[in-house]
Amino acid sequence: MKLLSNRILLIFLAFVSIYGYIASCTNKDMTLPAQSTGTVIISRGNGIFLPGSETAGDTSQWKLDQVHSSVLWSGSYLEQGALLTGRFNSFGMNILATNARQTYSIAKGQPLPDTSWAFYENDPSKTYFSGYVQMNTSNTGQPGRDGGCYLGYVSAPKIITGVQNLTDSNVAVIRTTKVEFDPASAGYIVTMVMSWQGGLSAIHDTTINGTLSYVKRSTIGAGTATAYDVFGLQLNFKFNCRSFGMTTTEISDIVAVQCNMNFNNK
Q: Is the pTM of this model over 0.70?
């Protein structure tokens, strides 16, 4: 019985060896899949978006849809806890020249035109933008914080109902100095100067870096008489609030900012 078992085992091993030999000969000319090179394949279009003079009805001029855009901030509570978060109710895309920054505006809507920007999808050297927030319009959903301790932390003036305040003590401004392709994604790397007075005696400038993402152009209401196009830009960056004179420990040194800007050509 044992002898029979050994013979069966030998026959089985011989069969496996013959099958392996035949298989190797049959597939010797088969092309193996190429090894991954780790190269990111990025596809970009040639979209060019310019603001013009914001003329309504001119589809060649792109307008910031401020109502459907947002500027959000966040930082760790007491430097170790969960995030404190908020959004600015008043913001825009204007370079805020010196004379403009010393004004109060009672006009509804944007106090200044949102025309300090241009976006070239495939030529970031031509892309630029400037933007600002009115610091006293931070909205955390907690009125006691927004109109109380927060204003002291950022050294911003109290809100005057119906008035937009563009004075030096109430605006933080960013402006790009360089925009370049991100080699690891379809986005862009942005170098900016942030200008803010905060708790200091004068405006302080510091260089910061961020990432910019492009949400591709699409058509709303295609095939109708009221159709229009939209696109979006999302900017993310961080800054050290201590360099602007913020001394409170209720928020961490590093504050993150996300700008979600939507545009249309209506």
A: yes
